[in-house]
Amino acid sequence: MLSQERIGTSEAFFLIVAAMIEVGTLTGARDIADQVGVDMWLVSPLETFFSLGAIYILTRLAMKFPQQDFFGFSRQIAGRWVAWPLSLGLLFYWLALTAHVTRVTTDVIKNSLLARTPAEVILLSLLIAAAYLASRGLEPLARACIIIIIVTLPLIMILFLLVLPHFRFENFLPILPRGPWPVLRLAFWRISNAEEMSLFLILVPFLQQPREAWQAASRGYLVVMVIVITVLTTCQGVLGIELLKYALIPGLSVTQLAEFAGTFIERISLVFISLWIILAFPTVAALLWASAYLAGRLVNLNDYRLLAFYQLPLVFFLARHPGNNLEVKSFYFFLQPLGFAYLLIIPAILYLIAIIRFPPAGSS
Amino acid sequence: MNRRSLYRAGLLLLLLTIITAGCWDNKDLERRALVLGAAVDLAAAGGSLVVTEPWKITLEMPILRRMVTRGEGGGGGGEGQDENTMPTWRLTLTGTTFAEAINKAATRSERTLFFGHQKILLMGEELARRGDLRSVLDWWARNRESYLAIDVLLAEGSAGDIMEARPKFARSVSLFLHEQMQQVIKTSRFVKHSLAEVLAALDAGQDILLAGVKMVPRQELEVSGAGVIREGRLAGWLTPEETQAALWITGETKGCDILVVPVPELQQTLSVEFGKLQAEVKPLMEEDKLSFTIKIKVEGKIAEKMGNPKLFAAADLHQVENRAARLMEERIRQVLGKLQQQYQADVLGFGRKVEKVRPRQWEAMKGQWRQIYSSLPVTVQVKVSIRRTGMVS
């Protein structure tokens, strides 16, 4: 870790909000609708409760070793032979996640804004810009996140509110026609969708107040979930469940119905999607930064930042590999189980061992 | 910044300049033809779907210089306008699919068609009767330029012929129809449904009403009545009055309807203008027997009185309210009969109500829903409250 790389709790909060909101939020409604149908709107609030539990365990584990990152504390808890594969797995997870986010973003840009621009050009521009931001280090990245969030998020939410006249409450009925289990099962499984919260596995030593890690993580996550729930609920309320299953980017389809009296911009949805795409940059940059840092730790490199660029060929390859947009989900099938492991199972096991091996001072 | 960082930043800038400077999607406005509306039909007379190119599409595009310097005739298609002075160009194309037909525009137009400003999609009667509407609309749902907010209408006869109309004020047929659809706040003699609503209904296997358009003398257009779409095809039409009654039930009416109520007791004929209308449609299950109750509450005012010049008393208004309520009930029963027995089309969403309120029972009956629906007992109760009598007593 470089000496100047310290961020405050509020910067960590903005970093996590910016990192978690990405284009997947606009496309996610379809996946949930496919699995639970009309009860889609119930999944995200329940998912919030489950995920907060996982985030609590994750941050408690990291806060127990405030001067160490994941590689450091996992080595201390479980030994080198466990720490290495776990850290390599985490590195792969972050790189694959970066590839997934950039691929989905590229597909959305191609589908909505730049149909004739080659996908490789969009992908490469996105990756280079994000890698540049990541290579500046954590502190500039956090500041960029603050600016991006403050500028884009309020505008996005205002644009989204414009479709409320099309909202129909009957699109939420009937409630639980197949019982509560499918919803509960999916909500629990979707802990893995809080992917970027895994950044807290390395973020705590960078905090000026490591004890406030849980505060930054939980508040950031709650803000993100308010936005996610707003987007998903609006999608269902406006489009209805059948059209939701059919639309490729439900979040964008919804905004096509936005009408804003007096506006000279007829295609408001394009403004909306443009703003949302800006939010993909902090996500990609944060993941590239995190993977560069972890790779640097594994090879014992002090100034790791340029690794953000060296990772790009692999990310580019992974992002380009699925032949079409329908193959993306099946190609990245491993992300969800990996996410579940790194957000809940591994932290829970490590925390349990840590409590046993390193009991709090004063306990017998 | 040291020299090495400067080089790096310069290199990065150069790289980004190379890959982002030339925008592949850049297209000047002068090189675009803005499609305002599309009319789709079956290409062959008689409507065979097995011919090589079964689909016909007529696209209406503005000729901007004529739009700006339109003549004294006023509107785009106003009287005295001919093909050489019309401010729009109507391009008709045929194809095996709509994508192919539209692609052929590249052989007829030096400009690239742009669908981002399309206002309406008009479907011909024969196409709607014979073609599967979900397939017909697929291109618009898939095309990234198209908007889900465009209005979908049905033509009585050929949709392409409707594009030949000459609206008096509007500069094009598409703009006329688009503006006309906004009049839904003034009357429920037609229904306004967007592409999103139509797609949602078709995807869910639901029946839906679509606004009807027909040519009237002097090449003018009338938007009124509704086409009944059952299982993705046109099953028949509702008259404007039947459409009104149907929208009273669905609650889609925005008010302002005029109901002409003859009151023999007062020797008067009154026009009651609707204000607020609340509709409640409830499925009832008694001893495994399904029935529906429709309760409608209307608030209105007297817009006009004809006949006996006698001044209104409060008791007279009650008589008017009762007469209006009975009249509405009668019209609602009439449209219910037509939809249930003649068309067997659940455009009022009865099945959806059962599904939402009684999902388990719905699972058991959805297979035979059409038969159940056609003989479903429906109780209608209308309550009319007249709040005002206008500016005179």
SSE topology:
The complex is a heterodimer of chains A (364) and B (393).
Chain A: H1 9-20, H2 24-36, H3 40-64, H4 70-78, H5 80-112, H6 119-135, H7 138-161, H8 181-189, H9 200-203, H10 213-246, H11 250-255, H12 268-278, H13 280-298, H14 307-310, H15 312-320, H16 327-331, H17 335-357
Helix pairs in contact in A: 1-7, 1-10, 1-13, 2-10, 3-8, 3-10, 3-17, 4-5, 5-6, 5-13, 5-15, 5-17, 6-13, 6-15, 7-12, 7-13
Chain B: H1 3-20, E1 32-34, E2 37-42, E3 55-62, H2 64-68, E4 88-95, H3 98-103, E5 112-114, E6 120-123, H4 125-130, H5 133-142, E7 151-155, H6 159-162, H7 173-182, H8 195-203, E8 208-216, E9 220-230, E10 233-238, H9 240-250, E11 258-263, E12 268-286, E13 289-307, H10 314-343, H11 350-357, H12 359-365, H13 369-374, E14 378-388
Membrane topology (chain A): Multi-pass membrane protein
InterPro entries (chain A): Spore_GerAB
Keywords (chain A): Germination, Membrane, Transmembrane, Transmembrane helix, Transport
Task: Identify low-pLDDT runs of chain B.
Answer: 72-77
Order of helices and strands of chain A: HHHHHHHHHHHHHHHHH
How large is the share of residues in beta strands of chain A? under 5%
Rg over CA atoms of chain A: 20 Å
CATH superfamily grouping of chain A: Amino acid/polyamine transporter I
Specify the helix fraction band of chain B: 25-40%
Strand element count of chain B: 14
Largest sheet features of chain A: none
Keywords (chain A): Germination, Membrane, Transmembrane, Transmembrane helix, Transport
Transmembrane segments (chain A): 41-61, 81-101, 113-134, 146-167, 220-248, 268-290, 302-319, 339-358
Protein name (chain A): Spore germination protein YndE
Main location (chain A): membrane
